[in-house]
Amino acid sequence: MNPIFDWNFAFEILPTLADALVITVQATVIGMLLAVTLGLVLAMLRRAPLWIVSAPAALFIEFVRSTPLLVQMYFLFYVLPVTGISLSPLTTGILALGVHYAAYCAEVYRAGIEAVPRGQVEAATALNLSRWRTAVGVVLPQAIPPVVPALGNYLVAMFKDTPLLSAITVVELLQQSKMIGSSTFRYTEPLTMVGVMFLVLSLAAAWCVRRVEGRLKLIGGKR
Questions:
Q1: pTM above the 0.70 mark?
Q2: Is 189 exposed, middle or buried (0-12, 13-18, 19+ CB in 10 A)?
Q3: Measured between alpha carbons, how far is 102 from 96 in angstroms, rounded to an integer?
Q4: How far apart are CA 113 and CA 134, in angstroms?
Q5: Cα 168 from chain centroid?
Q6: Are 166 and 174 in contact (CB under 8 A)?
Q7: Which of 32, 85, 173, 214 has the most CB atoms less than 10 A away?
Q8: pLDDT (tens digit per residue) in 195-218
C-alpha cells in the first residue's frame, strides 16, 4: 500500500518545483515593481488639474479595476501579436500583473496623497516651491509610508495570482505541480509542497513589508 505522502518522491520532485518557483517569484517581483511605479504615475495623473489629463487616467484605472485579470492576460497574449508587438508568455504575464495591480496601487497612493494636510501644500506654495518639488519633497514623503501596508497586501495578492500565468502557457509553480501529477498520477506530494511554498513565501513577504513599514516610521520619527 502506497503511503499518503511519500517523502522520497517529494524530495525527488523538489528541484523541479524549485525551478518553477523561480519563475513565480520573478513574475511577482518584477510585476510588483511595475505596479508600484506605474501606480504612482497614474495617481499623479489622476490628480492633475487639467481634466484632459486626469479624465483618461481615471478612466483607465476604473477600466482595469473593473475587468478580470485573466481576461486582461488573454487580451495581451492574443492581441499584442496582432499589433506587431511580440512578447514572450512570461513577459506578457508580468505586464498583465503589473498593469492590473497598478490600477489598485494608484488608488492607494491617491488616498495617501489626499490624507496629507492641505496646510503642507499651502506652506510649500508660500515658500515658492514648484509643483514638482512640492510633490517630491513635501507630499510624497508623507503620503507613501502610511500606505505601505496596503501595497504589501497587493504584493501577497499578486504572488497568489501568479497561477493564472498558466493560462498563457507559462509553467509557473502550480502548473508544474499539475504536470508532475499528470505524469506520475501522484498529486498529494506536489500540491502539498506547492501550498507550503506559497504559505512560506507569503509570510516572508508580509514580514518584509512590516520591516519596511517599521523602518519608514523610524525614519519619519527622526525628522
A1: yes
A2: buried
A3: 10
A4: 12
A5: 18
A6: yes
A7: 173
A8: 999 999 999 998 998 888 888 776
